[in-house]
Design a protein that fits this description.
Order of helices and strands: EEEEEEEHE
Radius of gyration: 12 Å
Largest sheet: 6 strands, antiparallel, barrel
Strand order of the largest sheet: 1-2-7-5-4-8
Structural class: mainly beta
Helix content: under 10%
Number of strands: 8
Number of helices: 1
Strand content: over 45%
Shape: globular
Length: 106
Amino acid sequence: MEIFGEFEIHDTFKITNHGIVLAGKIISENKPVTININDKISFRYDEKEVIRNIKGHERGFGRNIQIELSHLKNVAILIECESDLEIEYLKNWIPNRTIATLLTKD
């Protein structure tokens, strides 16, 4: 996997029957970032590093499209969770501007 950007997580939201959305900003260099369905996002919560698949974003939940995002643009990223318990935990998580790494798919 290759790093292609960073994402500052500000908040989380549950979307019924879909999972968790991470809301925040792209904080990578002043270049556009393209997010594809099935790319990965890596972040820390509960004192452990987790890597999850990206299932969608604000312009295409569940659809295989690309989105090009400018530096510091607000964006919502839908991630794949391992269980309903993880969804509930992340729904109540306070990320405090946690920095996540955006990774290309395998």
